[in-house]
Design goal:
six-stranded mixed β-sheet; 4 helices; alpha/beta; three-stranded antiparallel β-sheet; 179 residues; single chain; 24% helix; binds 1-O-pyrophosphono-5-O-phosphono-alpha-D-ribofuranose
Length: 179
């Protein structure tokens, strides 16, 4: 699996440092509040664990599953709500945990959904921000790292469901998805 990676961009230590920076910032920003963390499956599973262990607040955690890529390297433009949450979000301060914001369409879909449901505030903490990929106007509030417009995998991010278990974020060799 490691042989399919062209370049390692961020290793586990760098990611843990980013999670600590963001987790501590969230702790300061939400002092006295009980935020609801909304982790977006599947990609955000490791990032969620890293950030939350750095947050010193009473908080709730929910998992939602949406899908946009359908196994390819390009976003499909159509977002599907695969598994919803059951918890009320009305009047809650919601912090969305995402692995990557690329076109921004998944995030916009989620922010619209939460706004419709009456969330008091909606913030976003992402591991990776691919600003060059944006198709819609949406921004993340807490960003681990900016990435170039390359197809990255690992640390939760997949290609055709593989590579989520790589302990780093790396660039996938184009030869892998050209096959
Ligand atoms: C990926 C990623 C984000 C979204 C970002 O999820 O986890 O949720 O795409 O892309 P966008 O900004 O272009 O919308 P995906 O739909 O591949 O599901 P997964 O997390 O289960 O891999």
């Amino acid at each position: 699996m490691n042989n399919d990676i062209e370049e390692v961009l961020f290793d586990q230590d760098q990611i843990h440092q980013a999670a600590a920076r963001i987790g501590q910032q969230i702790t300061r920003d939400f002092d006295g509040h009980r935020p609801l963390f909304l982790s977006v499956l599947k990609g955000a599973y490791l990032w969620t664990a890293d950030v939350l262990r750095q947050v010193d607040l009473y908080a709730d955690l929910e998992f939602i599953k949406i899908s946009s890529y359908h196994g390819g390297v390009e976003s499909s433009d159509e977002i599907e709500l695969v598994t919803d949450i059951r918890r009320e979000v009305a009047d809650r301060d919601v912090i969305i945990l995402e692995d990557i914001v690329d076109t921004g369409q998944s995030l916009l879909f989620l922010k619209d959904l939460l706004a419709q449901r009456g969330a008091r505030s909606i913030q976003v903490a992402c591991l990776l921000d691919k600003k060059g990929g944006r198709k819609v106007d949406v921004t993340a509030d807490y960003v681990g790292f900016d990435v170039r417009n390359e197809f990255v995998v690992g640390y939760g991010l997949d290609y055709a469901e593989s590579y989520r278990n790589l302990p780093y974020v790396g660039v996938l060799k184009p030869s892998v998805y050209a096959k």
